[in-house]
Write a structure and sequence with these properties.
Helix content: 55-70%
Oligomer: single chain
Length: 472
């Protein structure tokens, strides 16, 4: 009589776990919740969150009648074409307004949809232990900031892409619609739409594939035209040096967090040559456009969507090795588990650090409110050190709208980064013209200063608040 430890018993146990309890899919969900739990209950912070305050206004809520006009303004943003993202953003603003808890709960839901999407996709090719590991790789790493920050477009595009591919693999044409929506969310996801078209064609659903391809080509044309009108997209130069820099970083960061180069070698050794060749083509087709877009930038969210390909390669190569050479395959699995654990702990630390900065900034904002209330008629003086304070200046004025604000800027600051230069020039204009709620910088006898650094500059205000939580 076979025991549970016999091969047939193990297969039966695996089937029960997956079919009746759904336990394997819960593994990446549990990891995602472990990593992102620190942001539950976090307040808004200094990076980007002031845009929510500016959008919802004093009422703290975006009314439905404003949605069309706001969408028209956002979708026309120069050089970028991300209409679907702005729809998601405006719907969230209408639902949650200035309540950060709702926004962060959305991010937890999106993260769970993302990791289960990767699990379901990988499960079409590999056994569940490797599929669960692939799901974990989606959120375990620097890319977790896509879900513990509120503004990265990747948080929406990832579940759309993954579940779109899952449905394509099941011969459901609606999956092609999802990958089109992902391409309309951010440019870097257009290549995944092309992959979905090729897969759908291979599986025999060719008419929907042609329709999807025409839509993706149209989206791509719009993107190319907009980029051609703005050769310094995001004010980045995109020279050979910056492209090589971003390429090295993207390849190294994804390799260290998922071990995909080793898994690719295993796929070549223990799988058919066509599998390894297909994976190489997939890497080239998806990494290339992303390297062009980030062009020297090295922020965690920019590991997506490349990390999806890396996770799938790791799962596929390791599963092939485990079937043909169990000792090598399961040794590789242990290595990947170590990499995933290391990346997951680092991601949770990042979520903790982000939440701590938000809490510190929110405390500083409350201090400014208290100081202004204690000094009726006082002006707010914002003292900036340089371009690194651009976001902070915007945030302070939007979170603390009381009274007249004076903006004090240093006379000369060397700036190498074109994007920082553009933003800084905008603040210089405000400081002299009084635009965007600021008055020209000038001494004032009754004032409260918001200091963004250790400075002893005029005007000398009776109350000074050192603004904290400014780090990225």
């Amino acid at each position: 009589m076979p025991t549970m430890l016999a091969p047939s018993g193990l297969r039966r146990l695996n089937s029960q776990l997956e079919s009746h309890y759904g336990l394997p899919a819960m593994i990446p969900i549990a990891v995602a919740l472990f990593i992102l739990a620190p942001v539950v209950g976090a307040p808004f912070g200094v990076i980007d969150d002031h845009l929510i305050i500016a959008l919802v206004g004093p009422s703290g809520q975006l009314t439905l009648d404003r949605l069309p006009s706001e969408f028209a303004g956002y979708v026309g943003e120069f050089a970028r074409f991300r209409p679907m993202y702005w729809i998601f953003y405006l719907v969230e603003a209408a639902l949650w307004g200035s309540n950060p808890t709702g926004w962060y709960l959305d991010r937890l839901l999106l993260a769970c949809l993302s990791v289960t999407g990767m699990y379901a996709l990988a499960r079409q090719f590999v056994p569940w232990p490797f599929a669960a590991l692939a799901g974990v790789f989606v959120v375990a790493g620097l890319q977790a900031e896509s879900w513990y920050r509120l503004f990265p477009q990747e948080a929406f595009a990832i579940p759309l892409t993954l579940w779109g591919l899952v449905l394509v693999g099941r011969r459901r044409p609606i999956g092609l619609l999802l990958v089109v929506l992902a391409a309309l969310t951010k440019e870097t996801f257009v290549p995944f739409g092309i992959v979905a078209v090729a897969w759908s064609w291979h599986l025999g659903t060719r008419r929907p594939a042609l329709t999807c391809l025409s839509l993706l080509l149209g989206i791509g044309l719009v993107i190319v035209v907009r980029h051609a009108m703005a050769p310094d997209l995001y004010a980045q130069s995109r020279d050979l040096r910056s492209l090589l820099q971003s390429g090295r970083w993207l390849l190294a960061a994804t390799a260290l967090s998922t071990g995909w180069p080793l898994a690719l070698i295993l796929a070549g050794i223990y799988g058919r040559p066509a599998i390894a060749l297909g994976l190489v083509v997939l890497v080239t087709a998806t990494f290339g456009p992303q390297i062009y877009l980030i062009a020297g930038e090295q922020q965690g969210r920019y590991l997506l969507p490349a990390i999806l390909v890396a996770a799938l390669i790791s799962a596929t190569g390791t599963a092939l090795a485990a079937r043909r050479a169990p000792l090598i395959g399961w040794s590789m699995t242990v290595l990947l588990l170590i990499l995933a654990a290391r990346a997951g702990v680092g991601a949770r630390d990042g979520a903790f650090a982000w939440t701590s900065r938000n809490v510190e900034f929110n405390a500083s904002v409350q201090e400014l409110h208290t100081a202004l209330a204690a000094h009726p008629g006082a002006s707010l003086v914002v003292r900036a050190r340089g371009p690194q304070d651009t976001e902070a200046v915007l945030s302070i004025r939007r979170f603390v709208p009381e009274g007249i604000a004076f903006l004090e800027l240093p006379a000369r600051v060397p700036i190498d980064d074109p994007l920082s230069q553009r933003l800084w020039d905008g603040l210089q204009t405000w400081s002299h013209s009084g635009g965007a709620g600021y008055e020209p910088s000038a001494p004032h006898p009754n004032c409260v200063s918001a200091d963004l650094g250790d400075m002893l500059s005029s005007p000398q205000c009776a109350t000074r608040v050192s603004v904290r939580g400014l780090g990225y």
